[in-house]
Write a structure and sequence with these properties.
3 domains, 19 helices, about 450 residues, binds zinc ion, three-stranded mixed sheet, alpha/beta
């Protein structure tokens, strides 16, 4: 905290008292902008503008260099606070230099406090909090500095700071240089699942997240073989293949295999992938070929053989972790798993069995039914045995799971000797949480 804190302006004080509910709600005060930045977070802990946000490092520099101008960095970011307290610098990092120069000039008036600084219609916008009226010279100097900064923002790429052009792009005004505009156009053409990947989310929004190819691996393939995976970048209006619609429909354990086959398929520039999926425990990669490019029979034969080899290799490779695996049956499905990953599937399946056993039962009915209690106990022991087979490296990959707790389920003091109410608690609380962790 700064040693000398300037008194809050009149407007601020009215604002914080104007919401009587703020005093009734028993919620912790959200961190201030300065505290967020110190923890490596953007204002309010989120970045409202994505890559159009001042970097954390530059935001910190500005509030440290001009503490009086940006004193709202220490105000509570409640809904009634001025936008700066909640959002910080809501413009791209390319404007850091001009905002820095502007701030130096504005600091000449010690009463001036920035209430909002943002990009609007492609230009820099700054609003101030109410403060005592400045002298006319200071007011003139402030206006001149602002006009200069706005004029500069009109010719400065908001993303990178190089000379840029103020223009309408996709219906919005912005200032971008040629390179940044091209990169943005490329991003805009991405498939929805690619957006998820670039945001660091699993490609599928559904329940296969633990199994899915990681975002890093998916991006490595797309960037490594851009022609082969060109459908990931195609315009949304083009015919949609399975790959364009859903991306890589395989587990991360098969990443190396997909990487190797991609390198071989990329030898034929006329090919592009239309589907990557698991079918009957094998990796399938389906391609389409541009018919206008003459075929090379020997390359065709080589690639066909390579695809068959790939299928064979996938049958021996755990789809979750990539270690050697075998075909396992679980429920109605077959899949390739190593021993520990198969045991993880068993934990998940046992949680599912427990859920079905206690479904619709109350504690009284459960306590009275020893057959169901024993069935739940057996499933818990099975979870304990499966957990015991997990080596430390694999346990570390699932840090949300209390492994020591699971280890104790199968021992002599384990589930077989637990009272009905303890079993009930496990079935109601721990098993559903465990099942969620393993999705
Ligand atoms: Zn640029
Ligand atoms: Zn495995």
């Amino acid at each position: 905290m700064s040693a000398k804190r300037a008194p809050k302006t009149k407007k601020l004080r009215t604002a914080s008292f104007s919401n009587p509910n703020a005093f009734k709600l028993d919620i912790p005060t959200p961190p201030t902008l300065r505290e967020c930045l110190a923890q490596g977070l953007f204002g309010s802990g989120i970045s409202p503008n994505g890559d159009r946000e001042m970097t954390i490092e530059h935001s910190k520099q500005l509030i440290e260099r001009y503490p009086s101008l940006y004193r709202l960095a220490d105000a509570s970011p409640v809904p009634s606070s001025p936008p700066f307290a909640r959002e910080g610098f809501a413009c791209g990092d390319g404007w850091f230099g001009l905002v820095d120069r502007l701030s130096a000039k504005l600091s000449a008036d010690p009463n001036l406090v920035v209430g909002q600084i943002k990009e609007k219609l492609g230009l820099l916008r700054v609003y101030f909090e109410l403060s005592p009226l400045p002298s006319s010279e200071i007011e003139e100097a402030t206006d001149a500095a602002l006009a200069e900064a706005v004029a500069e923002s009109q010719i400065t790429c908001e993303r990178c700071g190089k000379p840029g052009k103020h223009a309408q792009r996709g219906g919005y005004w912005s200032v971008e240089c040629g390179a940044c505009a091209a990169e943005e156009a490329r991003r805009k053409s991405l498939r929805p699942w690619m957006w998820r990947l670039l945001a660091g989310l699993p490609a599928a929004s559904g329940g296969r997240s633990r199994l899915d190819l990681t975002p890093e691996h998916a991006l490595a393939l797309l960037e490594g073989y851009p022609a082969l995976y060109r459908e990931a970048w195609a315009a949304p209006t083009s015919p949609v293949s399975r790959f364009a619609a859903g991306g890589f429909e395989i587990g991360d354990g098969w990443f190396r295999i997909v990487d190797r086959i991609s390198a071989r398929l990329a030898k034929d520039p006329a090919l592009h992938v239309v589907q990557v999926k698991e079918k009957y425990v094998r990796l399938k990669v389906h391609c389409e070929r541009d018919p206008s490019v003459p075929r090379d029979p020997s390359l065709d034969a080589e690639l066909k053989a390579a695809l068959d080899e790939t299928g064979d290799e996938s049958e021996r490779t755990c789809e979750v972790c990539g270690e050697p695996g075998t075909i396992k049956e679980r429920g109605r499905y077959f899949r390739v798993r190593c021993e520990p990953c198969d045991q993880i599937d068993e934990i998940s399946a046992a949680c599912g069995r427990i859920g079905k056993l206690v479904e619709g039962l109350g504690l009284a009915a459960f306590t009275a039914n020893e057959i169901i209690q024993d069935a739940v106990r057996l499933a818990m022991v099975s979870i304990g045995h499966a957990a015991a087979g997990q080596p430390p490296a694999l346990r570390a990959k699932l840090p949300g799971i209390d492994w020591e707790r699971l280890d104790r389920l199968s021992g002599i003091t384990g589930a077989m000797h637990m009272a009905a109410n303890e079993i009930w608690k496990f079935a109601q609380e721990e098993a559903p949480g465990l099942e969620r962790e393993l999705r």
